[in-house]
Amino acid sequence: MEFPTPFDVKANVHDGLGVVAVVGELDCATAPRLSEALAEMAEPGRVILVDLSDTEFMDCAGLAPLVAACEHQRELGGDLILDAPTRAVSRVIECSHLDNVLTVASGPKTASSRESS
User: Fold this and answer.
1) Is the CB of residue 113 less than 8 Å from the CB of residue 81?
2) Does residue 111 or residue 65 have the better pLDDT?
3) Taking the domains of the chain in order of start, what are their residue ranges?
4) How far is 18 from 26, CA to CA, in rounded Å?
5) How far apart are alpha carbons 67 and 99 in whole angstroms?
6) I need a surface site. Which of 23, 27, 50, 109 has the fewest CB within 10 A?
């Protein structure tokens, strides 16, 4: 029997900065939840930071809400920044060349680099 990987999206606003943390696998089954969280966070001039440090996997379906939210925030005079994507997530972003479109604040974090932080 196969068990689904736990997935969660946590969204908060800190001093005007929107922070959305994605935990688990971001794919066609979970991308709609991220889309909803990012849509709720949208506001003129707001910068949204998407924390991907606990995102174990992301496929092309997971990229769609990030690109759409980035375009929307830029239209509103804000931005969307990806922070600390794991190696697996960074690979998808780089292979799709979206690292030329989306702002990535920091590189992949490994377990050892998180422990030393």
Assistant:
1) no
2) 65
3) 21-116
4) 19
5) 11
6) 27
pLDDT single digits (tens) 85-115: 999 999 999 999 999 999 998 765 544 344 4
- Is the CB of residue 52 less than 8 Å from the CB of residue 85? yes
Nearest residue to 74 (alpha-carbon basis) of 66, 62, 64, 85:
66
Predicted confidence (pLDDT) per residue in 4-19, tens digit: 668 999 999 999 999 9
Residue 6 is predicted with a pLDDT of 85
Q: What is the DSSP string of the chain?
A: ---PPP-EEEEEEETTEEEEEEEEEESTTTHHHHHHHHHHH--TT-EEEEEEEEEEEE-HHHHHHHHHHHHHHHHTT-EEEEES--HHHHHHHHHTTGGGTSEE-S----HHHHHH-
Give the pairing of strands 17-26 and 8-14: antiparallel
The whole-angstrom distance between residue 2's C-alpha and the CA centroid of its chain comes to 26
Tallying the residues shown for the chain, one arrives at: 117
Given the DSSP bridges, would you call strands 17-26 and 79-83 parallel, antiparallel or unpaired? unpaired
